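Review form for a predicted model. The reviewer records the input and the model, then writes brief findings.
Reviewer: anonymous (R2)
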Amino acid sequence: MDKNSLFTSPTYGKMDAVGVVTQIASFIEGDPQRFYRIVIGSDSQARLINSHAEIDFVTAIIVHKEGTGARYFWRKKRLIKSTALREKIYTETQMSLETATEMVPLLRKYISAAKYDFEIHIDVGPLGPTREMIKEVVGMVQGNGFKAKTKPDSWGASTVADKHT
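Model under review:
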């Protein structure tokens, strides 16, 4: 198994996608009367190493029990590519979409869709240099059938994934 396909849980260590969904299902079953939000968000950090741009992309999956806590899982991929902001944001969004495409069929297999909302958090907002990209990346996410959240509501990308870049 490719190490880039494994997720890390601060609580449970390394696991594959099925392990992540099993842990999410267990978390939800622990308090089945509550409603949950499952979030996917990505963030990146660029570095210059030996005059080559390397970017660490982190994608996080969070299961949030409204009002009382959460569990999260993350994976990191290092790519050698341009550090242009537009390209980084597109890559972050694409990585979140790829993870959603991988995880949603598993989530539906193990957990009733009536128990949770599903969102993709994008690290763009109305302030700063990413404001011009909001419509484009939100359109990418919605065009793939998912609900998109941007700053200041995109904590899955800007806080959780950012913690591991």
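Findings: Residues 31 and 104 are 21 Å apart (CA to CA).
Further findings: DSSP finds four helices and seven strands in the chain.
Recommendation: see findings above.
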